């Protein structure tokens, strides 16, 4: 009741104040109604300890925290449903205000995914969507310095599977909203929070179902924010300081099975070629024949031009004059495996199976190749190229799954989602002077939402160094306590900025 009164009071205040504006930066303006009620992103010592515990080790008696719940996805049919259900109960327990606020609806979708609808006091504003996923990739304990589901804190870091991908986002979004609600903040712009439970194995039961549900409700989103890029530190040799990359594009993907069948027989008198030999030669040809370097198409060129002045001589001159030096840059980028992933469709041999006994020529040999498709290519174009490289009719090609790259989202002055992220990055990370559009080399749940918005942005608000990247899906994944707190602060600011920052669109009154 008290919350409802507050809501009405705030609504009245908003109507009285009207939409007074002042210029912030090119393309942005801020309404005074929001500026008046801004809540500073400062958290007490107790709140900081609490937010860390909820994320890692909730309390010493039950020894449960978000990282400790093993929400592992193995395949799109096999994931830890017990842990996913436990996670649902866990967030209900640790974010009581989010779950009890009258203007927030919570629904479970696809069994284990969660959709929160935050109504907002101004329904004329177009809603947005914050995305994250609950599931994690498997983490066998071998090679880890601490058990991967321990959530242990050591030397200022919280360790465990999901600390970077992507329970940090799940918990930071809910934590920021909880703290805003405790401070009686009432969002003006409606928004959704969607927490998928099967992102690591396709998103077909989580994100896709939520998207279908929102579409059936007639929802159109101003923008979507998901995981997928970072403040990059040290990925490009010689770049002087970290820069924030908002991924406005996402590569496509093909999982292609290659299969060779021959008549089985006794290994003492083999034919000249076996199923294994034929298949091995085919996959080797694929690995040895990289698909074309597409530098120049896609957002990478813009990123490099924006970064040009961050390099010392002569790289700064080279990047400022790509019209002249692009053949050199194009070759330079393919030398490193991460920048190589930005300039071409990559070819990764991920599975190889053949043979049943040491003295039997196997009748069948199978391999799976995972291609990540450059934004300027399509599934069909890649398959055509692959057929020509394999060039052997004995090798059958079976597409297991495939999707084209995602459309490139706008990053101009009128792109609300991009500008909001840029603005929030500058305020939370004042030391980061460059924000540039880029490409996500992995795949995210956001691809299931392209029917609802053309502004899809992938950005995690923390620094990522190449050594941190090895922890994502790898060993010893960890996040610093300070980075997690900053993540919460970022979402706390972003939600408020979505209420106050507007982009100026000529002849359009509201976004
Ligand atoms: C000039 C700029 C340099 C850019 C360097 C790029 C560094 C990128 C670093 C990390 C990218 C990580 C991407 C994280 C998101 C990936 C999420 C994920 O793992 N998804 C799964 C989904 C499987 S379901 C099809 C995946 O396999 O992609
Ligand atoms: Zn992820
Ligand atoms: Zn992942």
Overview of the molecule:
- The chain is an alpha+beta fold.
- It has 2 domains: 20-229 and 409-503, Aminopeptidase; 243-403, Alpha-Beta Plaits, CATH 3.30.70.360.
- It has 16 helices and 24 strands.
- The strands form 7 sheets. The protein has a 6-stranded mixed sheet with strand order 5-6-10-7-11-21. The chain has a 4-stranded mixed sheet with strand order 20-13-12-22.
- The chain is globular, with a radius of gyration of 25 Å.
- The model is unreliable at 1-36 (pLDDT under 50).
- It binds the ligand CCCCCCCC/C=C\CCCCCCCC(=O)N[C@@H](CCSC)C(=O)O and zinc ion (2 copies).
Protein traits:
alpha+beta, 2 domains, Aminopeptidase, binds zinc ion, 34% helix, disordered N terminus, Alpha-Beta Plaits, binds the ligand CCCCCCCC/C=C\CCCCCCCC(=O)N[C@@H](CCSC)C(=O)O, six-stranded mixed β-sheet, four-stranded mixed β-sheet
CATH topology value of the largest domain: Aminopeptidase
Please report the distance between the alpha carbons of the first and last residues: 31 Å
Q: Helical stretch count?
A: 16
Major sheet description: 6 strands, mixed
Q: How much helix, percentage-wise, in residues?
A: 25-40%
- From the spread of the alpha carbons, the general shape counts as globular
**Name of the top-level CATH class of the largest domain:** Alpha Beta
Structural domain count: 2
Strand order of the largest sheet: 5-6-10-7-11-21
Oligomer state equals single chain
The number of E-state strands comes to 24
Query: Which runs of at least 5 residues are low in confidence (pLDDT < 50)?
Result: 1-36
As a whole number of angstroms, the C-alpha radius of gyration is 25 Å
Helix and strand content put the structural class at alpha+beta
Roughly what is the average pLDDT, rounded to an integer? 90
Fourth-level CATH superfamily of the largest domain: Zn peptidases
What would CATH call the architecture of the largest domain? 3-Layer(aba) Sandwich
Bound molecules: the ligand CCCCCCCC/C=C\CCCCCCCC(=O)N[C@@H](CCSC)C(=O)O, zinc ion
Proportion of residues in extended strands: 15-25%
Pfam family, one: Peptidase_M20
Family: Belongs to the peptidase M20A family.
EC number: 3.5.1.114, 3.5.1.14
GO molecular function: aminoacylase activity; metal ion binding; peptidase activity
């Amino acid at each position: 009741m008290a919350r409802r009164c507050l809501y009405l009071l705030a609504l009245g205040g908003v109507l009285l104040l009207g939409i007074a504006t002042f210029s912030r930066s090119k393309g942005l303006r801020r309404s005074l109604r929001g500026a008046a009620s801004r809540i500073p992103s400062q958290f007490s010592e107790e709140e900081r300890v609490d937010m860390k515990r909820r994320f890692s080790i909730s309390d010493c008696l039950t020894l449960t925290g978000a990282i400790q719940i093993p929400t592992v996805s193995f395949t799109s049919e096999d994931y830890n449903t017990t842990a996913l259900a436990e996670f649902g109960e866990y967030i209900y327990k640790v974010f009581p205000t989010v779950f009890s606020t009258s203007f927030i609806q919570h629904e479970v979708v696809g069994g284990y995914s969660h959709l929160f609808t935050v109504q907002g006091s101004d329904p004329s504003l177009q809603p947005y969507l914050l995305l994250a996923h609950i599931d994690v990739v498997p983490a066998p304990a071998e090679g880890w310095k601490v058990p991967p589901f321990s959530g242990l804190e050591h030397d200022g870091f919280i360790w465990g599977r999901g600390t970077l991908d992507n329970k940090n986002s799940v918990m930071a979004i809910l934590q920021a909203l909880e703290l805003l609600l405790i401070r009686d903040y009432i969002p003006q712009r409606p928004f959704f929070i969607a927490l998928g439970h099967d992102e690591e194995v396709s998103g077909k039961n989580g994100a896709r179902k939520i998207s279908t549900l929102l579409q059936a409700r007639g929802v159109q989103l101003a923008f979507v924010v998901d995981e997928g890029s970072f403040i990059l530190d040290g990925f490009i040799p010689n770049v002087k300081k970290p820069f924030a990359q908002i991924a406005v594009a996402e590569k496509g993907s093909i999982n292609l099975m290659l299969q060779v069948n021959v008549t089985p027989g006794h290994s003492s008198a083999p034919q000249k070629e076996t199923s294994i030999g034929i298949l091995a030669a085919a996959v080797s040809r694929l690995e040895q024949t990289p698909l074309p370097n597409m530098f120049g198409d896609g957002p990478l060129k813009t990123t490099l031009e924006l970064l040009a002045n961050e390099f010392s001589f002569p790289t700064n001159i080279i990047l400022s004059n790509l019209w002249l030096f692009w053949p050199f840059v194009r070759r330079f980028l393919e030398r490193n495996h991460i920048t190589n992933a930005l300039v071409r469709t990559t070819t990764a041999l991920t599975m190889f199976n053949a043979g049943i006994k040491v003295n039997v020529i196997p009748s069948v040999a199978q391999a799976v190749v995972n291609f990540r498709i450059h934004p300027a290519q399509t599934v069909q174009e890649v398959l055509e190229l692959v057929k020509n490289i394999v060039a052997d009719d004995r090798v059958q090609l079976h597409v297991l799954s495939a999707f084209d790259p995602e459309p490139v989202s706008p990053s101009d002055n009128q792109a609300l989602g991009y500008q909001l992220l840029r603005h929030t990055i500058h305020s939370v990370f004042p030391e980061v002077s460059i924000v540039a559009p880029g490409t996500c080399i992995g795949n995210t749940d956001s691809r299931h939402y392209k029917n609802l918005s053309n502004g899809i942005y992938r950005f995690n608000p923390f620094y990522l160094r190449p050594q941190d990247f090895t922890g994502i899906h790898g060993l010893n994944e960890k996040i610093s306590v300070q980075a997690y707190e900053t993540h919460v602060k970022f979402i706390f600011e972003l939600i408020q900025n979505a209420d106050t920052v507007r982009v100026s669109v000529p002849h359009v009154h509201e976004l």
